[in-house]
Amino acid sequence: MIKNACITGLFFIVVMLISCNSFVIRKIIPLEPENNSKNISPDVVFKWEYVGSSETDVEYEIYFGEYVSNPSDENLHLIKSGLKAKQYKPEFELFENKTYIWQIRMLSKGKEICRSVVMRFETVKHVENVEMILMKSGIFTMGNTRNDCDGGIDEVAHQVNLTYDYEISEKEISNAQFLLFLNNSADISSEGILKGRPVIKMNSEFCEIEYAYDEFTLKKEKKGKENYPVILVTWWGATEYCNWLSETSGLSKSYDLNGTLLNYPDNNGYRLPTESEWEYSARGGENDVKTDSDYIYSGSDDIEGCAWYLLNSENPEHPIYEGKGTHETGIKSANEAGIHDMSGNVLEWCHDWYGNYKDTPQTNPAGPLVSSGRGRVVRGGCWSFDARCCRVPARLFLNPDSGYSYLGFRIVRTCGEF
Description:
It is a single chain. This protein is 14% helix and 26% strand. The protein is an alpha+beta fold. β16 (209-212) and β17 (215-218) form a beta hairpin.
């Protein structure tokens, strides 16, 4: 009995040793692009390595496809076989703003012996082009230059010297442009919160953007408004957009965490216009005081031709309130500099804290250094305001946390090398 048990035990050990020696570890490790990586160039090169026992007559196949929920083999298509090197550059064009999947399979003597996990990556998001208009440095008179009876006591006429060239966006920032920021800026919550501050008022009944299926998008009933000005953006949201666009474009950030303007005007990053930059641009970049081009509104004395305001903003297809609302940017005539919608459509955030003008000449003013307790300046009037608020020198202010259905923004950047 003991002898038989020993023989049986020895036989079991021998079988186990043979089994262990015949056990082969094979593993393909994808290296680039990494799983769930983002902002990958469409000019991608796939790389991987193999770990395991040596094999003869080894070659690799690469499978590729567009990402769908719960991807399977049906979503993967063979794009290259017979590979000996552990890297491959696709022979076809990948597109920006797409999510793709890929997998490597290893064959020996024509038979598959192992495969990698399915990898996922997103190609770089194309930054929606923001057309900019060059404004040359100059001296102009800011304020109620016409002595209009509609002018407020806060519109004291005074001379301003802008000593640098800058660019200003031809149109107000659109829904499509702002959505790229929302979907590509890290840490924005589904409620539109970033760094503890509201970027956009997602909970407003007038919000045209929603968060669904892990991304921000226009609401179904708002499709077709991609080129309308984005609304309900706070001052903080506008400055965060500026910083994001600067980083994406390889430029310096213009704002710190507290909203302080960094190294103005010698900073080439995108930012909100100072109030003086905004008005100089609205005047077409001219010192138009006591000239025929000292218009009531930006580019015209006829508000119907240059602005969407209370009496002409009907939009039955895309109303916001009582049949009226915003309109696609750039429809109304531009001013002398080629800039659209500086009167009407949406109010526009400026950088400055609101404060009283000084009646003495100013050079590169950027508003009070600290809050006056009133808010940040907004300019230009909007679709729901009367004509008086669309006047070039008209001034208003709002709390920087505010976001309204008549409030948007445009951007500027100083020109030159710094």
